[in-house]
Design brief:
By secondary structure, this protein is of the alpha/beta class. The chain has two domains: 1-80 and 157-224, P-loop containing nucleotide triphosphate hydrolases (Rossmann fold); 91-155, no CATH class. The protein is built from seven helices and ten strands. A hairpin with a 2-residue loop joins strand 4 and strand 5 (64-65). The longest helix is centred in the C-terminal third of the chain and has 16 residues, at 170-185. 38% of the residues are buried.
């Protein structure tokens, strides 16, 4: 599903975010990227989502080389990926329905299909009935679940999440992680950046530890 071969990422200010990083994530896996702040976790996810481009090395997703995807092809490529951010990135002036439906609107889905998909996604995260609520009327945990519903509404084969539980208390954090596990159980590939090792241990899944933009000593880069 995902292959990094000798990937490096240097930002214009000279900071080396990744250095000679190689790793594989198999289809259907649930993988956690771990490491301290600045280890390179978020950069890996940004490269997968083509928010950033690698400076060197090879990145493939579903057998497709990301270096060969032109700017105009990026929106089509991203339809196979659901992205969840720590700060939700919701449209606060739009109701929950509009926020969740956004990927379907961009894809040009028919209205009837959108309504069906949005309700199903909200049901999956336990928020059916909140379609007309504004995000700021919801708790932090509920807002994160809206973000997850938006990420899964188009049924992408790959979910990536950057510290999705960073602002949640331990009980809510575990609830959100179990949501990801449920999606993984039905075949979705899930890659999550998280520094919370205790939480990861409760959920299960393979860990890839990063340090200074490289695999940490003893880290496993490849699935079985």
């Amino acid at each position: 599903m995902i292959r990094f071969e000798h990937v490096g990422k240097r930002y214009p200010n000279g900071r080396e975010a990744l250095s000679d990083l190689s790793l594989n994530v198999d289809a259907g896996e649930m993988v956690f990227l771990t490491g301290h702040s600045g280890a390179g976790k978020s950069t890996v996810l940004k490269l997968i989502a083509l928010i950033d481009r690698a400076t060197r090395g090879l990145i493939e997703v579903s057998g497709q080389s990301l270096a060969r995807i032109g700017r105009r092809q990026v929106p089509l490529y991203r339809r196979q990926i659901g992205v969840i951010f720590q700060d939700h990135k919701l449209l606060h002036d739009r109701p929950v329905w509009d926020n969740v439906a956004l990927p379907l609107v961009i894809a040009g889905a028919p209205r009837r299909e959108m309504d069906k998909r949005v309700r199903a996604a909200l049901d999956q995260v336990g928020l059916l009935g909140h379609e007309q609520s504004l995000p700021l009327e919801l708790s932090t945990g509920e807002q994160q679940r809206v973000g997850i519903a938006r990420a899964v509404v188009a049924k992408p084969p790959l979910l990536i999440a950057d510290e999705p539980t960073g602002n949640l208390d331990p009980d809510l954090a575990l609830e959100v992680m179990r949501l990801f596990k449920r999606f993984n159980d039905v075949g979705v590939t899930v890659v999550i950046a998280s520094h919370d090792l205790h939480l990861i241990e409760q959920v299960g899944g393979r860990r890839i530890a990063l340090a200074g933009g490289r695999l940490a000593d003893g880290a496993v880069a490849h699935g079985a």
